[in-house]
Amino acid sequence: MITRRIQYELAGRVFGPALLSFEAWQKRLKRRGKKRGPSPFGPPLESVKKLKEVMSLHYLEGRYADGAVPVAWVTSGFPVELLRPLGFHTVYPENHGALCGVQRIVPELSDAAEKEGWSRDLCSYARTDLGSVLLGKTPAGRLPKPDLLACCTNICQTVLYWYRCLADHFRVPLVLLDTPYVYGEARPHHLEYVRDQLGELIEVVEKLTGKRVDMDEIVGIVRKAREGTRLWGECLATARARPAPWTGIDGFFHLAPIVTLRGSEECNAYYRLLLDELGDRVKRGIGGIVDERRRLLWDNLPMWYGVRELSTLLAERGFNFVCTTYTNAWAEAGSRIDPADPMGSAVLAYTHIILNQDLPNRLDIMRRLSKDYSVDGAVLHSDRSCKPYSIGQIDLKERLARELGIRVLILEADHNDQRAWSPEQGNTRLGAFMESFS
Amino acid sequence: MRRAYIEEQKREHGRKAIAVLPVHYPKEILTAMDVLAVEMWGPPGPPRGAEAGRLQTYVCAVARNALAFMASGKADVVDAVLFPHTCDSIQGLATLLPDFGGWNKPALRYLHPKGEARPSSRAFVEKELVSLATDLESVTGRPLDTERLRWAIALHREIDGLKAQLLAGRPRLPMDDGALYALLRRGEYLWPEEHLVELRAARDQLRADPVQTGVPVAITGYVPEPMSIFATLNGAGAFVAADDYAAIGRRVVPQDGPVEGDPFAVLRDRTFAAPPCPTRASDPRIRARHLESLFGRTGVKGVIVHEPKFCEPELFDVPAVKRSAAARGLPLLLLEGELELELSAQTVTRIEAFVEMVSTGRAA
Ligand code: SF4
Ligand code: SF4
Q1: I need a labelling partner for B163 at 20 to 30 A (CA). Which of A11, A114, A277, B124 fits?
Q2: Cα–Cα distance between B225 and B244 in angstroms, integer?
Q3: Of B112, B144, B176, which one is at a domain's C-terminal end?
Q4: Is there a contact between B115 and A122 if contact means CB atoms under 8 Å apart?
Q5: ipTM metric
Q6: B91/chain A closest Cα distance in angstroms
Q7: What total number of domains does chain A contain?
Q8: What's the pTM?
Q9: pLDDT, tens digit, for every residue of B212-250?
Q10: Residue after which a domain boundary falls, among B114, B144, B174
Q11: If you measure CA to CA, which chain B residue comes closest to A395?
């Protein structure tokens, strides 16, 4: 245990940074001499280097976490602020799933899950994760085994079925925060239910770790989480400028710290750095793409395996995704967090997540984003394996087009499984969509 | 929708009628308030209206068909709709229809908690039951009478008890599967007292000794659609000796005794006494144990898993069901459908081959 702990600390503080600098130096050497062709994108963000460092360190630490500190696998919408004071190392299977999606290894992982009996029609994050667990394969080198699974249904019911399967596999406790869906206004007894569960949850994690949750520490972490989401919101808001200093696609990648390291100083430090850089780019008129002619909103998760190709196709014609409902969700939720009332505000914040609220609320958000970011059109990604996000898009498309007079395209794909994406068909549809603006 | 029957119930008895989406809901409260529950499992067949196109084709047929049916006015004979908190798709439908068009009458929701009983979820479900009763009061214009609720609970307990007897005594019931399932499923729309009479009559037919001579199989899944699956099974020489359909066996709650104390507390306990069901996010390990015990008790020779395509709650559990069958050394047949009106020729052949395999004792 002590040796493991030392390895864990060293990975995070000493070897990790050294290893990452060495890797970065090697990459620079390889790139030296290679000429960059003309790119439709603006100069790359300097902060990306730091982002890679922060996230790689997190995964590197993870390799040594089990046996050293308690490990929790956590859904993206879970109130992680409760776990941090107890020293949990947190793993976000959704974020890990995205990593696998970017590396295009999902078909192989999904095949393993399908062989076990999970249908290809199920959420591709779940299939990716279950396949990765079955094969022991991950681009992160190694994922630590969980001591606890922590699931919140504020993004979907599907995560609970998925985490049930993980609990069955790892034979570890699963704590659940069941957040009743909000139709119009949340009913008082729905909020009471969430509050009661938070109390139960604390008892379970205290028992598991043998430590008491210190409320003062929670307040400190909640304060940091609020600050982090505020900073993230400000980073996003820089894209209201013309040209937007970055692309919505960049935003998908820079989202990782607010999802996985929310409530930590390293998360906030990272977003301060990013915000400075974005602010500077706005001042100097540097855009995320070279020639921004049309501004678009993106709805739903990205297609992790194809974001680069997709944004290049659009950027070459002067189209930029300046806002996305997905990245915005992480800024919205945090605004309800109040360090003066950590539990009460957590109840409100974690219940009122975009995917846990009805379609009129979603339409309001899309209207607001469209206006605030002065968009000319919207692309709604109809994500085959994420029903909670995709149901309603056909009506949303019609309403956005009618009410705001913008062009809206529904693009059929999947967020993680490239087998559900037909590039020829998709690119033709996008081509025709862009054509319609001329 | 059974329009003529619903109209007669409203006219003759002054009842209100409510369309109910699958799966779990406290029917006792509706009965106590003189509300006829008309369940909508689809309806099966191709979508009855162009409005199905408002949901992508990767959403299950149950949600798409319900949308088409309701938005095209075919359910206008009912006074309201109730959406239980079953899955992401029904959750989405419960905002799409009332908020974006297709349903102008009251839309009620019943958000049952997920997972096993915890103090928080026990307290919550009780409040949610009261909240649903209040919503129903505004539909019916009458207050809920506590004594009448006790009566309704007792009535539904008896109905469940009879269903349990018929399912457990299946080998001794001189009836084919098609007739038994048609009888059980009439409870999806009949006024409960009428259904009770039919169930009692069936119970009286139970013999002392087995009369079924086919090979006993278990069936688990969502809803038995198309119903011709039973004719195919029986024709091939098998019969259903163990049922775990969400629409049938998983809603039979083993509870008896007098209805004492606060009826809402009784209904709360009923919620957690129900058999494990993935649409309530039951632990797959508990479900696996439940299934293994069911397979053992009924002596089935094979297991058929019959699921709708694109159904997350059901499909996530398939590996656990497979393991339960394997633990008992039982072969398993997985069928996925889309609420077709008839089984495809290929599915018929697969069922026949499966029955032949289990009858001859050739393990998969
Ligand atoms: S169904 Fe959608 S919201 Fe749920 S885990 Fe999958 S991608 Fe996330
Ligand atoms: S996804 Fe499954 S549980 Fe939900 S409506 Fe469809 S068939 Fe029913």
Answers
A1: B124
A2: 14
A3: B144
A4: no
A5: 0.96
A6: 8
A7: 1
A8: 0.95
A9: 999 999 999 999 999 999 999 999 999 999 999 999 999
A10: B144
A11: B54
